User: Fold this.
Amino acid sequence: MHKQEFQKGKLSLQKKLTFSLITIVGVFFIIEVLLSLTGYQAFLADDPYVGFQSGFPLFILDQEKGIYQTAQNKLTYFNQQSFPAKKAKNTYRIFTLGGSTTYGRPYFDSTSFSGWLRAFVHAANPERNWEIINAGGVSYASYRVASLMEELIQYEPDMFIVYSGHNEFLESRTYSAIIDEPKAVTRLKLILGNFRIYSFFYDIEKKLTSKKSNTKANQTRELESEVTTLLDNSVGPDAYSRDDAKKNKILAHYKFNLNRMTELAKSKNAEIVFVSPPVNAKDFSPFKSQHKYEMSKEEKITYDKELTSISLDIDRRKFDDIVQRLNKLIESDNRYALTYYEKGRVLFAKGQYNHAKKNFLQAVDEDICPLRALTPMGNIVQEIASKNNVNMIPLTQILESMCMREYGHTILGEEYFLDHVHPRIQVNQLLGLELFNLLTKKAIVRPNASWGDAKIKNVVLKVEKEIDENAHAHAKKTLARVLIWAGKTKEAARFAETSARLLKNDAEAQFHYGYLKDTDGNYEEAIAAYKSAIELNPDYARAYNNLVSLLYSLGRIKDAMELAQQALIKFPDNALVHNNYGQILVHQKRFEESIKSFKKSLKLNSMDAFVYANLGLAYSFASMNEEAIKCFSVSLELKPDDMETKRYLGLVFASEGRYEEAVFQFKEILKKNPANAQVAEYVRQVNKISEAN
Assistant:
């Protein structure tokens, strides 16, 4: 009887499960509240390719004004934007995302496609409250855009417009095994990522995993919270080399990021629109071409001489047998980007537009320093839009159709671009209108009865009226800076000259002009421009460094020393200042002091191969050969192809009686340049001494 009563009082399995579920949910709720009180923020799943998460928010809440506005520490990369923290009724909120084109470079937000769209919707449909927020970040690649979207989906978006693809190769990154994650898993992560408790335990698990894993193969490279491009830390495109496997991974990563953006938008029931990224293929040569690895040094020298000769003939419009000569070069090396570009130029001049276009695009795709979207990227955008059933603006095709109507071909060039990728204002206007038409077609925008061509013309005139000569001058200064940064000094020259003339009180404009005159060998003009930049901005360290280097190279040691000493006082934490000063001290045979100066430079920047080489020279002059060998060796680890450093290292080895090591260094140089008679003589002399001993 007692047994029967006990069984009657026992809870059913269903009730047990229900109470257990309530208990678990309750515990989770309490933990979620506690994490909220501590300020812990939820984050969506991070990027499995490079382990990247944005470290700081783009928008900061001003509680007093009740608005979100661009964080001060982000204004180097983003426009100043703001929007209400509490979204009002009848509001349609759009975030535009991408790189410098979305930002509006070389101008600003008002002439970007975001600015044009904003102007059109306000004029056509003023009854609705429109918030079009330009979140385009200079040099931002798709993985940074996707990470930024994780923040933006918190702000009640209705739509995202994404124009991305030109910056995928800007930052140095390494890849773990590519993760092919099922869509269902991605969507589940996006849902769970809205909860702090999921983010908290995910964060702990990730940290524990990274501690246990000691192999590079299982680790992803953590990117900085802001952009550090390859070109920022190198002398132009020299930092780039051919890596087809990495290129394919970057393309896969790009595809992943577009899918990720789509899922992020869907997680908040927001629409997303992609824009295919067009490029200037016709009027912008490749940033860097690289020969096939199999080619010998002699073959490369012969190839380059012939290509230079062909380029000159094209400039002179001497087209006889040029195509045949170019085809012969392509037969010997079918990966050299500049050859395809030159062939495109010839075929274009001959009116063979289809073949010319094929070669121009091949030049873009073979560019070793790909600062333009590669052809597969346009296909990827179309594929993602189609598979996810989201809208795409085929801007490349739209411009090509326009080009056909206006010029009789579909090869995009300077008619539509200011440089390699940044569109002219009229193209941004066109894109803004295309987006406006899309919103109208979707009945998001409902133009009033007065809307038409006349109203559009009024909007255009109003926006264009705000762009004065000063704005154009600053845009040219920006173009000069970008092109110099990318090693395109020839293309930068006209922009730098114009901006320097129009912006006489702008230190940066004068500096750019000085740099280009320095590069061209017009040294007196360069000195005058550098001095002008320093007068306008006494804290312009780069102008000081460049002027010191130029004066030193011209043998004006006294002037260089005087300026270097001023720079030391003004910029004690600038590595290049200490390096320049050290070089002058070496010239004056003050070796101990120079060694101290180079060491200070390396303390501030321990990855500068050039400074290690300078320190090695100072040690060798001071007869401290073991230290010199160490420095030259480190320099070559950082920059393996520096033949001058190899020569110095070989000479020090020879002076130490380490003849085999000396000959090895000299022969390494001769592999690259067999015609180097001086180094060949070194080998002969060292072998002779070695045999005598």
Remarks:
- Residues 13-37 form the longest helix (25 residues).
- The beta strands are 59-62, 67-70, 82-84, 91-98, 129-134, 159-163, 271-275, 391-393.
